[in-house]
Specification:
By secondary structure, this protein is mainly α. It has helices at about 10-15, 20-30, 45-60, 65-75, 80-125, and strands at about 35, 40.
């Protein structure tokens, strides 16, 4: 008989601030596989950690496929060189993408500042 702590879907949804539907979606995508007690889903501590990693991956902008790869890495034997290299490469790709987005946002903000200044000048002239 296992004494491992288990969780219900509502409990996990509340803890992570998401809906039960979102958790079922991750199950449908094969990212989580809770046990069943009749119709009730029973989540283990491992499932809870997987959900935490899924949400972290989403927050970092990874695709569901990339999240699955990250989960596989997390549960793989430590020191798996190929998987670690893959994960590092994915993080570098994501960082590069975010840096490009930051540059685009900075340029857009500069352009908006210039346009607003031009409009303010025109407004002052029009009101004079």
């Amino acid at each position: 008989m296992s004494t491992e702590r288990t969780y219900g879907i509502s409990e996990l949804a509340q803890e992570f601030g998401i809906t039960a539907r979102a958790i079922r979606f991750y199950e449908d995508k094969g990212l989580m596989t809770p046990l069943r007690d009749g119709q009730r889903r029973v989540y283990s501590g491992r499932d809870r950690i997987r959900l935490m990693l899924i949400l972290r991956g989403k927050r970092l902008g990874f695709s569901l496929r990339e999240i699955q790869d990250i989960l596989d890495l997390y549960h793989a034997e430590r020191g798996e060189v190929g998987q670690l290299r893959y994960f590092i490469a994915k993080m570098q790709e994501r960082r590069d993408s975010l840096m490009r987005q930051r540059e685009d946002i900075d340029l857009t903000l500069q352009e908006l500042d210039r346009l607003e200044a031009d409009c303010q000048t025109l407004l002052v002239r029009a009101e004079a």
